[in-house]
Write a structure and sequence with these properties.
mainly alpha, three-stranded mixed beta sheet, 12 helices, 3 strands, about 75% helix, about 5% strand
């Protein structure tokens, strides 16, 4: 195995995930908060799915999009955390080349899907507040399903070229990935050929998709704020804005760390590698952990149903 790290090869059978370079001795301690966040994310998102499924009053567009978000969060964190924990706990660093490319696809695909779902949720809030009389007809169940399908197809099409381009590259430097997961640029940097097409695709597509989604979200909330400030009373304005508070907070926890990670990976050459990898893992875990908490606490219908569920169990 030691020779395979340095010998020339164009079709590696395995990669070695190093974990967090420079902090190997602290892997077990680092795993504790990451594992805790993962458990909270799993439990929280499953509770959201269970509550929406069992409560008929929550069978509406906003909660269908919330279920899509919960499923996306479950896939996003589960595609990385189990392997990360095996590195931290059991020093199991090897990952099959095909499995590595599959993980790469899932990370980038479901990151794009989550961004698209936030855009869809912003559209839902726009229709509900700016044109409430047409909300039930504009966002009927078939329309919600088509929006969800379009978001999934868009994420898949945006992410698929990343592993396909990475598969075509020759890897003759090393098979050691300085990361806890098969992130696109971390893998492509190991290639000994011209990687500009793959790198530019990753940068341009990721930036354009996120910026486009953020643009439509900003347009939606501009119209929402105009509608809110045109309401006659302060109580009405606060009550209407409260329906958007959880969505806005979830957007901030998703986009701000994500953009910071993208920019530091591409341009922050002086940022310590271990800091970047730690922050990248936080970005993959914090939104899935916080989203069910944000929507569970801030959304009255879910909060009341959750209280009834646990009160009934306690009784």
């Amino acid at each position: 195995m030691s020779d395979s790290n340095t010998t020339d090869f164009t079709n590696p059978s395995t990669f070695i995930l190093l974990g967090i370079p420079g902090l190997e001795s602290a892997h077990v301690w680092i795993s504790i908060p990451f594992c805790t966040m993962y458990i909270i994310a799993i439990l929280g998102n499953f509770i959201i799915l269970f509550i929406v499924k069992t409560e008929p009053s929550l069978h509406g567009p906003m909660y269908y999009f919330l279920c899509m978000l919960a499923v996306t969060d479950l896939v996003l964190c589960t595609s990385t955390v189990p392997k990360m924990m095996s590195i931290f706990w059991f020093n199991s660093r090897e990952i099959d080349f095909s499995a590595c490319l599959t993980q790469m696809f899932f990370i980038h695909c479901f990151f794009a899907i989550e961004s698209g779902i936030f855009m869809a949720m912003a559209f839902d809030r726009y229709v509900a507040i700016c044109d409430p009389l047409r909300h039930s007809t504009t966002l009927r169940n078939p329309i919600v399903a088509k929006i969800g399908l379009a978001v999934v197809l868009r994420g898949s099409m945006l992410a698929l070229p990343c592993p396909l381009l990475a598969r075509q590259l020759p890897y003759c430097r090393t098979n050691i990935i300085l990361h806890t997961c098969c992130e696109h640029i971390a893998v492509v940097n190991l290639a000994c050929a011209d990687t500009r097409i793959s790198s530019y695709y990753g940068l341009i597509v990721a930036s354009s998709a996120i910026c486009l989604d953020m643009f439509f979200i900003a347009v939606s909330y501009t119209q929402i704020l105009r509608a809110i400030f045109s309401l006659p009373t302060k109580d009405a304005r606060l009550k209407t804005f409260g329906t958007c508070g959880s969505h806005l907070f979830a957007i901030l926890t998703f986009y701000i760390p994500g953009l910071f990670t993208l920019l530091t990976y591409r341009f922050g050459h002086h940022v310590a590698l271990h800091f970047h990898i730690l922050f990248a893992n936080v970005c993959l875990l914090v939104p899935p952990m916080l989203n069910p908490i944000i929507f569970g606490v801030r959304t009255k219908q879910i909060r009341d149903r959750m209280l009834r569920l646990f009160t009934h169990k306690g009784t």
